[in-house]
Input
Amino acid sequence: MSSGANSSNDDQMNRQPAKRAFAEEFGDASEIFQDGDDERSPKFAVLPTGENANRVLAMGTLTETEDVAKSDDEEYWQGRVVDPTGAFFAYAGKYQPEAMAALRSMEAPEYVAIVGKPRAWETDDGELRTSITPESVTVVSQETRDQWVVETGEQTLERIAAMEAGEGEAVARAQEAYPEAAAGDYEQGVKEALAQVAGIEIESEDGGSEDDE
Output
């Protein structure tokens, strides 16, 4: 077996589990750190509810795809995926050929799952943005998307409980990175997401229903 094949197998074995977060929280995860001094050491996004994510699993409705490359000589595809709390953005180019081909071939709207690496970057206006560099983009059923919403909601609430209890190094890192973050906002987002999947109305924080707008 070639050394390249061995390296590929090592990468598969060492791959970090993909963490789940709703778009609202992921969009706030602008703090990235590298765990180790080696240039190949893994990088992690700090989720505001107290989790470190080297990889993420996002699901929702693919609403837009667009080739946003600045040159005619290459492709760089953007996908916008909406879950009940907001939107994820994924960007795939020549270094993500499978994901790029998937975005190129898909026609919105579709329920999709994205697995990939979180990335934080600054716009020309100085605004911090987060996006996903996808390893894969696949079409899924509504049932699979709904199950992701339920499981992501459960995991988010577990993280919030751990944060309120002050448990763990990841919690301390999140509190330091986002001192003004309000766990209650993410908890409300979970309630609204679960209600949407269940097809029921809940009262918003101002006392009106979510359909009052």
